[in-house]
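Changelog-adjacent note: as of this version, every example in the card shows the full chain rather than a window. The one below runs 193 residues end to end.
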Amino acid sequence: MKIIALNGSRRKKGNTRILLETILKPAATAGIETEQIFLGDYRIEACTGCEGCSKSWDCVIKDDFAEIIAKLDHADGIVFGSPTYWYTVTSDMKRFLDRCYSLIQFPKTRQQWIGKYQNSGKVCVTAAVCEQHEEAMMGTTLTLLSDFSRDIGLELLDSVAALRCFEAGSIKQESAVLQQAELAGNKLARQKS
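Full-length structure tokens:
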């Protein structure tokens, strides 16, 4: 069993890393292999809208994207996490999500699609961090990650919103959020243990 967390933050010691580590901890404690991937460590070009993936599940752009998708293909659980930049996910996460257009197919019409992971049994948790005190200031960060995960066929188990977190490590003071993150992680671990 393996659970992969994709981190859209460039801050390696930031709040998103701590939040994702907290979500992964129950699985790691249960002996499930876990890995956190910082998207900023990979070369992921922008989607060009070329439709080269329309007849397969593979993006035709040659960069590090395929390496990450191979990891997702072999994972049983996936966690998507991002800090909030201007009311949504970071540019690293957005570029990755855009490239995941290759993970859906339109067998009949453009209004209906199937996700690559549909009926795969893969489960997901989404997580977002925001420095503001009101969830509305998070904008679309959490809903984008959650809607995206369902669109590609993952079963969304839980979502965690961390507010009031800006300085690196400040999330450690948010005990309720960390408790919620651990509960979400327990859901992942129970699904896959």
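Structural remarks: The beta strands are 2-7, 33-38, 77-83, 104-105, 114-115, 123-129, 155-162.
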